[in-house]
Specification:
Blueprint lengths: L2 H16 L4 E9 L6 E12 L2 E7 L10 H14 L2
Length: 84
């Protein structure tokens, strides 16, 4: 198993422990509503809360230095595209 797979599995296990009532899915694909392309999601958390379905996206990255604002903006655009 590669290092990134171990890292994703650790995060997935922690989320399952922390949110036992949620559906935790790895390596999902959702078609973007703006891009109309298949978007890959490392971990997707689905839960019903306050009367509606919530989708939370976890993108597993291990950066060696601080990230810049463009990286954050890119992730925000990604989540908006898939409706998370």
């Amino acid at each position: 198993m590669k290092d990134w797979e171990k890292y994703e599995n650790q995060i997935c296990d922690k989320l399952r422990d922390s949110f036992p009532d949620a559906e935790i899915l790895k390596n999902q694909k959702i078609k973007g509503k703006y891009s109309e392309r298949s978007r890959q999601i490392d971990i997707l958390v689905k839960s019903k809360s306050i009367g509606r379905e919530l989708s939370i996206v976890v993108d597993c990255k291990k950066f060696s230095k601080k990230i810049n604002v463009k990286t954050v903006e890119s992730f925000i655009g990604f989540t908006e595209d898939i409706g998370a």
